[in-house]
Structure formats: C-alpha cells, structure tokens
Write a structure and sequence with these properties.
The complex is a heterodimer.
Chain A lengths: L1 H6 L3 H16 L3 E10 L2 E10 L10 E3 L6 H6 L5 E3 L12 E8 L2 E10 L6 H43 L4 E4 L5 E4 L1 H7 L7 H24 L3 E9 L6 E13 L2 E10 L1 H37 L4 E5 L4 E4 L1 H7 L7 H23 L5 E8 L6 E12 L5 E10 L1 H78 L8 H31 L8 E3 L1 H11 L1 H6 L3 E6 L6 E3 L1 H18 L4 E9 L4 E8 L21 H7 L5 H11 L3 E7 L3 E9 L6
Parallel strand pairs in A: 18-20
Antiparallel strand pairs in A: 1-2, 1-6, 2-3, 4-5, 5-6, 7-8, 7-11, 9-10, 10-11, 12-13, 12-16, 14-15, 15-16, 17-19, 20-21, 21-23, 22-23
Helix pairs in contact in A: 2-4, 10-11, 11-16, 12-14, 14-16
Chain B lengths: L3 H9 L4 E5 L3 H13 L3 E5 L2 H11 L3 E5 L7 H10 L8 E5 L4 H10 L3 E4 L4 H12 L9 H12 L2
Parallel strand pairs in B: 1-2, 1-3, 3-4, 4-5
Helix pairs in contact in B: 1-6, 2-6, 3-4
The chains are: A alpha+beta, B alpha/beta.
Chain lengths: 685, 156
C-alpha cells in the first residue's frame, strides 16, 4: 500500500489508492474522499473520488466549512476518526459511517475520508491515515509548486509579448552593457547571428560599443535616470540613426541592471537640422543681398559711363554722377542749358520706349546727345537691359551710355589709314602689273634677242663661207705669183705681193675667229676627246709660234712639272688656246721673258697650264673686258699689235666648252699670267 | 713650202689626171693653173652633172670636188661616182668653204676620201694629191688626219 501511495503523482491518484485500500481492508461498501478547498475567504470540503458513491459533476459533495454545525466539518477538525450516523445522506451515503480526518502534519487537516459501514478504529487504520496525510501533503505541495511555476511561465511569456509589442527598442543590460534581455527592436540593433553579413555584424558591434560608452558615462554620472541622445547605425542599410535613450538602474537577483528604452529620433533630428540649415541659408542670402546692393551702388557710382535706371513707366529712378551731368540741370542754369538737358532727356526716353516695345532682350542704340554746359556733341552708344520680377513683369530698365567720341575718332583715323593703305595697294598693284608687263616685254625681247643672236650666228657662218671663196682665190693667186708660177717677179712686186698675202692671211684669221665664235654661240662647237700628254702638246705649240719667237727678242722658258697626268680632252682646242695665249704674250711683251708652265692639281682633279709674260700688264678694271668680243685694251692697240681682238674671247669660251676655265692675274707694268685650268676628268656640263 | 710645188710637182704629177670641180671659175682656174704648172693633166667641171660626165668619160686619177655646186651638188655627185663601178675607184677630195662639222661628216658619208677646207692654198692641195696618189697604200680615213689636213689648209 505504501509503495502504491509513493508511486502516486498527484492528489487524485493518491485519493484513488486510499479509497481502494479501505474497500479492500475494511470491506467497506462505500468510501468518499473529500479535500478541503479554499475559495477566497471561505473554505469548503469537496468530494474528489469515492467508491459506491455518486460523484456526479452536477452534484458534488460540497460542505461549507464555515458552517460549524455540519457534522463533516466537525469531523474534519475533530482530530480523530468520528462515528457519524445517518444525519446527512450525502452522496448516497447514509447510515452509520466513520469519518477519518487525514492529518496534515502541523497544519490543520485538509482531507476527510468517510467510510461506511464504519470499520473498527485500529492502530493500522490510524497509521494508514498518518501515512496518507504525509503523502497528500507532499503531493499538494508539489501541485502548488507546479501551479506557481505554470503561472510564472505564463507571466514571463506575457511580459515578452508586451515587450515585443513596444515599438521602441527596450533592453536590459548589466552595468557593463552586456545584453540580458532585449525586445526584437533592440535585437535588430544590438544582436547579430554568426551567419549574418559582415556589414551587419560590424554595425551591431559598433552599436554595442556606442551603447556601452554611453552607459559607462551614465554610470559614472551616478544619476538614476538619464535621458540622452545615442547615435547608432542601422545594421540593415548602414544609415545613421539617432535615438533618444532613457535608462534606469534596477536591482535584479544577479545584481544591478540597466533598463534602457530608446526612441528613434532620426527624422526629428533631420528635420531640426533642415530647419537650422534653412535658417542659416536665409541669413547668408540676406547678407549677400545686402552686400550685393552696396556693391552695386559702388559700381554704379564708380562707373565712368553714365548709367540710368528707369522704372516701368519710363521715369528715371536712379542715375550716377556721369549721367547727372547729361540729364540734370541746376535750378539756376541758363535756358540754353536747360534746353540741352531736355533734348538729352527726350533722346533717352525715346530709346527706353523702344526697350518697352521689344522687352526681354538687350537693346542697343546710338544717341546724339550734347554736353549741356558747352553744347559739344556727345555721341553715345546706349545699351539697355530689362529687370523683371519673379512674375516676369518688367520693373526697371537699366541703360548704360558709352561715349563714342574717341571711338568715332579712331574709326575716322582707321578709315583714313585704310584709304591710304588701299591707295598704296593700288599703286603697288599698278607698279606690279607694270613690272609684269615689263618682264613680259623683257622676256619677249630676250627671245627676240636669242633669235637675233641665232640669226647672227647663222649669218656669220654663211658670211664666213662667202668670205672664204674670194679669199681662197686671193690667197691662191698670191701664193702662185710669189712662187713664180706666172713668171719671175721683181723685188718691189714680190714685196708688195707679200703684203697682199700677209693681209689676206690676217683677214682669214679674223674670219676663222668669227666662225669659231659663231659656232660656240650656236652651241655647235664639236668636242672630240682624245688622250694626250701635255709636254708633247707644249712642244707643238712652241713649234707653231716659233716664227713669232724668232721675230721677238724674248726669252721663252718652258717649266713643266713632272708627274703631269695624261689629259683626256679635245687636243686641237687645247692647242688652239695655248697658241693664242702664247701669241698674245709674245705680241704684247716688248722685252723680258715669256714662260709656259704646267702643274698638276690632283686634289681638284685639275691641270693648270699657264702662260706668263713680263709685258705691259692689264689694269684690273680692264681684266674682265678683254675677254669680251672684239676687245683689246683700247682701240689703238689693235693697230699696234694686230689681231681682231677675238682671241681671248674664243680662248675663254673654248676653255668652258672643255669643262675648264681661263684665269687672268695681271698688274699694269708687271706683266700678265693667263692660266688654263683643265679638268683631268671631263666634268659633265 | 712655197717652193715645194714647183720643185716636186712636175715630176710626181707628170702622168696624173685630176678633175677639178668648182662653180667659182676663179678658184677652179687658179687650182687648174697651179696643178698644170705642177705637172698634172687637169680636167674641169662647173657643176655636179658635168663632174660625173667628165669623170665617166675620162676616168681621172683623182677628183677635187667643191661641195656647194649648182645643178647637182658635190655630195650627190660623189655618191653617184662612188655608186658607179666605172668610177667608184677614183679618190674624191672634198673641198668646201663651209667649215662646219656637218659638212665634213656629210662628205664622208657621201663617199669622199679626203676633206679640205677653204681657203686652201694650191700648194696644200698639191701636197694632199701627192700623198694620196703616192705608191703607198691609201691613207686611213681617220678624223685626225682629216683635221690635220684641214688645219694645214687654214694656213696658220
């Protein structure tokens, strides 16, 4: 029985075990188990279980314990089993029965067993009652504790729901700021999970630091309740949030804690900032406007150009000092001055009226004003702009007048300059076209000259042929006569014939020279190249002029350097040149010596063959002239020395035909040196 | 030089026959007289046609041909002489007052064997004839020889 009781988990189980025990042990036909229950101030005895009795829900055993007259109430507090007789047929129990109060330890009995028919009150029964009482007390105690616990859980859940429902973050922390309890709003700010994003975890860590910092300060302050602003970061989007936080210290079982309630005041803060900023802007704008107005006044006054401000009706509302000089007159002014001011005013008004006709754009015009004081014309350029209010209505017209006197003067001067420049240009153009015309003329003349020159060359070539035919007969017959073909001659006849012969030969030489010049000028001088040595050529030349040498009383020296290269040139032409030079030297040197020399100039690929004399020399002024056609130093020398004066001209031209040149060095009275420079390799011309 | 002709001419030109062609009678007569004086038999012609006629008829040993001739010029006459088997072997000496390059070139192309420029002294012509008609082989027609002859003819 004891084991059965100990196995019971609650009072009703225990009651059932007790009822079954009594039925078995005492052979009772009816057993009722009732428990004392307190309801408010009153207490009642309520049947819990039974055997052989009805415990209908609608009619349970209920005994009001406040009713002192009730036998069951009496029996409960009797302290020992009491015999009851059929006094109250509760729950179908009547007749004799035994009411056994179950002792509740030190406390008053809270349970009553009613057994019928009444068993004998034995020690066994009393022990049973005691054990049952002890067991019941334990179970009741357990049930009471369980009830309290269920209540606590419910209350906590309620509290959490309430907390969760609060729209502001609420949290309980220890004084160091460690989170103990937080509602979801607070969790969102101060709690993070491992699997959440890095950014979010950082934001949460930052929030916790900010929160702790504000708490520790608060703790140092020692004040009970602190209201302060706490800037935090929204872990969801990283934006700044401003919270107003109220913290209160509370005492918990684990020591002091801090309850903090926060309110998001970010928007409020933003709004406040906005308002503040707008206010500042307003202030700045006001200051700027004031400064601008001051500056504008200064500018207007400082401007050298007249400035006039007219209102929407065209009336002048503002003008600077230069404008006043044009548009105002003192009261004591002369009538003429007043008249001028009025005229100026009329001009301006008409100009401003135009602005009203075409508003919105800058208007430009030229006004012929006059200086009121002296009546001098003041040409001005007027530029007007309109000022409109925010509704687009014209409120003022600002007109700036620019004195154009100087400008017009400049323009006039510029025009003059331009005219002069144009005239000059025309003159230049005329001169240029004249020049072009002259050039063209010259060009034509040149062509004509060239044609003439060609004709001349052709003519000379033809003429030389015509000369030769009769000359051939003269020379031939003279020669025959001198040879005695036509019979013997007397000495005077021979002498005269020799003079005829000599002059005919001279004439032939002149004709040959003319022919050479003609051929060179016509570009028809043929060049036949051959290789020859200078020394042998010089020997031939000397042999050719031997009669001249014999006739003169001059020393002729021959100075040829060794290692002279073999020339590749037109041998007859080189010879012709040298014969001519040597003949000249012999002719024009009355006494002294003549020298023919040759030296190689390998560096220039040249050979220099020079003919020097100790003759009369040639003045520097004449040195170029003697190379001209038909030139000797003066006409008189022609008669004295003979020759047509074509020799040097031909020599120089031939030297050029051969790719060389003929150079003269001479001083009057000290003789001359003609140097024939020949290329060792014929250069391309 | 002046006496060369008179001393050697009679001997060397004794059996020689020369045709002198020149339209200018004075020159023709001058050369003819000097060559006869020097021992040549001299035929004369005043134009190219006559020259061909005489050359074909008499077969001279040498022809002295002026180039500028009426009727038929010297070049054409020479060309015909050189084309005729009867006369082609006769040497022709061209003689002209046109001392331009083209003339000698044209004369050579026409078949002339020698070229002399006027004025040409009679003794120079004689010397050339003697050289040409000597027993030695005919001289080569090198330009140097021609030029030398021409320059000698110029007499300077």
């Amino acid at each position: 029985m004891i084991e059965a009781l100990l196995r019971c988990e609650d009072v009703s189980d225990c009651a059932q075990v007790a009822v079954e025990y009594l039925v078995r042990e005492t052979r009772a036909s009816q057993v009722l188990f009732a428990l004392r229950q307190e309801e408010g101030e009153s207490a009642r005895l309520v049947g819990v279980t039974g055997y052989g009795v009805e415990l209908a829900r609608d009619a349970p055993l209920r005994v009001d314990l406040d009713d002192d007259g009730d036998p069951l109430a009496l029996a409960l507090f009797a302290g020992r089993p009491t015999h009851l007789d059929g006094l109250s047929p509760e729950n179908g129990m009547d007749g004799s029965r035994l009411a056994i109060p179950i002792p509740w330890g030190a406390v008053k009995p809270d349970a009553l067993l009613v057994v019928a028919p009444p068993p004998k009150v034995t020690t066994e029964l009393e022990w049973f009652a005691e054990v049952l009482g002890r067991e019941l007390r334990r179970l009741v105690e357990i049930e009471r504790l369980r009830g309290a616990e269920r209540l606590l859980v419910r209350e906590r859940a309620l509290l959490k729901t309430v907390l969760a429902a609060v729209p502001d973050p609420v949290l309980l922390t220890d004084p160091e700021g460690r989170l103990i309890v937080a509602n979801p709003r607070a969790d969102a700010l101060f709690a993070s999970q491992e699997d959440e994003s890095e950014g979010r975890r950082r934001a949460v860590a930052l929030n916790n630091m900010l929160f702790s910092a504000s708490l520790s300060r608060r703790v140092i302050d020692g004040s009970e309740e602190v209201r302060r602003e706490l800037p935090l970061v929204d872990p969801n989007d990283g934006s700044d949030r401003l919270f107003e936080m109220m913290s209160t210290i509370i005492q918990t079982h684990d020591g002091p804690g801090i309850v903090s309630v926060m309110r998001n005041v970010t928007d409020l803060q933003l709004a406040m900032l906005q308002v503040e900023e707008n206010y500042c802007k307003l202030r700045v704008a006001e200051t700027a406007i004031r400064a601008e107005r001051d500056r504008l006044d200064l500018i207007i006054d400082a401007a050298a150009d007249p400035i006039v401000v007219s209102d929407a009706n065209g009336a002048i509302t503002l003008m600077n000092t230069p404008a006043e000089r044009l548009f105002t007159a003192a009261e004591n002014e002369s009538p003429s001055e007043l008249q001028r001011v009025r005229a100026n005013d009329a001009h301006l008004s008409s100009h401003v009226a135009n602005v009203f006709l075409a508003p919105g754009a800058r208007f430009r015009g030229e006004l012929g004003l006059v200086d009121p004081r002296d009546g001098q014309p003041v040409p001005v350029e007027a530029i007007s702009g309109t000022i409109e209010n925010e509704h687009g209505e014209l409120t003022a017209v600002v007109t700036v007048l620019h004195d154009r006197t100087e400008e017009l003067e400049k323009a006039r001067l510029y025009e003059q300059l331009e005219r002069a420049s144009k005239e000059l240009e025309e003159k230049v153009q005329t001169a240029t076209s004249e020049l072009v015309r002259q050039n063209e003329l010259l060009r034509r003349q040149q062509i004509e000259l060239e044609q003439a020159s060609n004709l001349k060359s052709q003519f000379l070539a033809n003429m030389s042929h015509e000369f030769r035919t009769p000359l051939n007969a003269i020379l031939g017959y003279t020669s025959m006569l001198l040879q005695g073909v036509s019979g013997p001659l007397g000495e005077p006849q021979r002498r005269n014939l020799e003079r005829v012969d000599s002059n005919a030969r001279h004439l032939l030489a002149i004709i040959n020279d003319i022919l050479d010049i003609s051929r060179i000028e016509a570009g028809r001088m043929p060049v036949h190249l051959s290789r020859f040595e200078v020394p042998m050529l010089v020997s031939e030349v000397l042999a050719e002029v031997d009669p001249l040498i014999a006739r003169s009383k001059l020393t002729v020296r021959r100075e040829l350097e060794k290692s002279l290269p073999v020339l590749n040139s037109d041998r007859p032409k080189v010879k012709q040149i040298l014969v001519n030079l040597l003949s000249n030297a012999l002719k024009f040197t009355p006494s002294g010596s003549v020298r023919i020399a040759a030296s190689p100039k390998p560096r220039q690929d040249e050979v220099w063959i020079s003919v020097s004399d100790t003759g009369i020399g040639i003045a520097e002024a004449d040195q170029e002239r003697i190379f001209g056609d038909f030139q000797q130093v003066d006409g008189s020398t022609t008669r004295q020395y003979g020759g047509a004066g074509l020799g040097l001209s031909i020599c120089r031209r031939l030297a050029e035909v051969l790719g060389g040149r003929l150079v003269l060095r001479s001083k009057v009275g000290q003789g001359s040196t003609f140097t024939l420079v020949l290329p060792t390799k014929r250069r391309r011309k | 030089m002046r006496h060369e002709g008179s001393s050697t001419g009679k001997k060397s030109g004794a059996q020689r026959k020369v045709l002198v062609v020149d339209d200018f009678e004075d020159n023709r007569a001058m050369y003819a007289e000097f060559l006869r004086y020097s021992g040549f038999e001299v035929l004369e012609a005043a134009n190219g046609a006559e020259a061909i006629e005489r050359a074909t008829a008499s077969t001279p040993d040498v022809v002295v041909m002026d180039l500028s001739l009426p009727v038929l010029d010297g070049w054409e006459a020479t060309r015909r002489l050189k084309a005729d088997p009867r006369t082609k072997h006769i040497p022709v000496i061209a003689l002209t007052g046109h001392a331009l390059e083209g003339h000698s070139q044209g004369a050579r192309e026409a078949g002339c064997d020698w070229f002399l420029a006027k004025p040409c002294l009679p003794e120079t012509l004689l010397a050339t004839l003697n050289e040409l008609l000597s027993d030695d082989p005919r001289p080569t027609r090198g330009s140097a020889s021609l030029k030398a002859a021409r320059r000698a003819g110029n007499g300077v």
